[in-house]
């Protein structure tokens, strides 16, 4: 028969081993969403922005589709903020006022298009998968085009308003571009990066 202290030591070691295994398994499970974000963002148009915005995203993103939806939600949120910001700007020249008004309209359209993108992503299943994928890609591409068109309106205008608009809209366009990449990736076999052989 083993001495009592040996039995106690054996129980302690077994408990330690078991708790270590449980911690390792739960830690691995907790890291899964981060790994999904990392592996999904690595080939995005703006990988650092993708990683930063989606790593801090609070929603549950367990699948590539969840992640694409999260990216669109982030884009909607940022586009709404830019829309609010643009509404506060005061412009000087007639040309600048016209460019700003057009930009406000285009960014408002982007919010609507991104909202429609999110609706389509929620329907991605079964026989209608391709149809909803095509619609989602079309809407998010339209949002991105509106953001680019807004910037084009300020191309030949100088000053603080142009600088502020360019900074804010460029940032939101990059987030939207990443969302488009993550949506397009849903149609790739096993999440194969777009453009790679």
Key structural traits:
single chain, 197 residues, mainly alpha, Butyryl-CoA Dehydrogenase, subunit A, domain 3, 6 helices, 76% helix, elongated, disordered C terminus
Can you tell me about this structure?
The protein has about 200 residues and is an all-alpha fold. It has a single domain, classed as Up-down Bundle (Butyryl-CoA Dehydrogenase, subunit A, domain 3). About 75% of the residues lie in helices and about 0% in strands. It has helices at about 5-40, 45-55, 65-90, 95-120, 130-150, 160-185. Helix 1 (about 5-40) packs across helix 2 (about 45-55) and helix 3 runs antiparallel to helix 4. The protein starts with a helix and ends in a 13-residue tail after the last helix.
Summarize the SSE layout with pairings:
Blueprint: H1 4-41, H2 47-55, H3 64-88, H4 94-121, H5 129-152, H6 160-184
What does the radius of gyration come to?
24 Å
- Please write the CATH class name: Mainly Alpha
Major beta-sheet overview? none
Kindly report how far apart the N and C termini lie: 65 Å
CATH architecture: Up-down Bundle
Low-pLDDT runs: 19-30, 190-197
Whole-number average pLDDT? 81
Structural class: mainly alpha
Number of strands: 0
SSE order, one letter for each helix or strand: HHHHHH
**Number of discrete helical segments:** 6
- What's the CATH topology label? Butyryl-CoA Dehydrogenase, subunit A, domain 3
How many domains, as an integer? Answer: 1
CATH superfamily: Invertase/pectin methylesterase inhibitor family protein
Estimated helix fraction? over 70%
| Approximate strand percentage | under 5%
- Please tell me what the overall shape is: elongated
